[in-house]
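fwd from M.: "can u put these together and see what the complex looks like"

so here's what she sent:
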Amino acid sequence: QVQLQESGPGLATPSETLSLICSVSGASISDFHWSWIRQPAGKGLEWIGRIYGSAITNYNAPFRSRVTMSLDASRNQISLNLYSLTGADTALYFCAMGKTKTKFDSWGQGILVTVSS
Amino acid sequence: EIVLTQSPGTLSLSPGERATLSCRASQSVTSNYLAWYQQKPGQAPRVLIYDSSTRATGIPDRFSGSGSETDFTLTISRLEPEDFAVYYCQHYSSSSLYTFGQGTKLEIK
């Protein structure tokens, strides 16, 4: 059974960079598609970006200028870096896996990130 | 970019009743790559249906999906107490990748 666990700071500073890690067990990150998705409190889901294969990345247009994702095969982890933070980035951040490119089959429990000075 | 509009925003029903949730796309959906998720408070979403009508592993058969092109429906044939949650539709396309609807809250009447 695939398990995903997000980790990182619960509090981030405006204008700074958010770095999150998704640790995966039960599957190799060299397989499948890996996405970050966020959800502001009481609101809907917003896809941030995807990484797969030999670290091919695709980012949602609103984030394209300030996001990077990477893979660490030795640790079986996926990372997210989101730059130039504002209060609007306060949200629950999920890591999700797609067995195919079209959907999200497994999700982490999410990590709540608050952006505040 | 395809926009997904879900209706109603909130649906109030009783256990045992039938629920019909709608997801409308602003343009025709690629290859019926339309999925439905259930999210309960404090939990991550869980995939219920993918490719418009295929139930994900372990999903009870009271959940069914249908539709094509721009109009898609999630039907719960007979509501169980654990089915009251928020439901999202999601589309994949090679151009805009992943898009979510805004969600429908299914609440107990």
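replying to her w this: Chain B touches chain A at residues 1, 33, 35, 37, 43-47, 50-51, 56, 88, 90, 92, 97-103 (CB under 8 Å).
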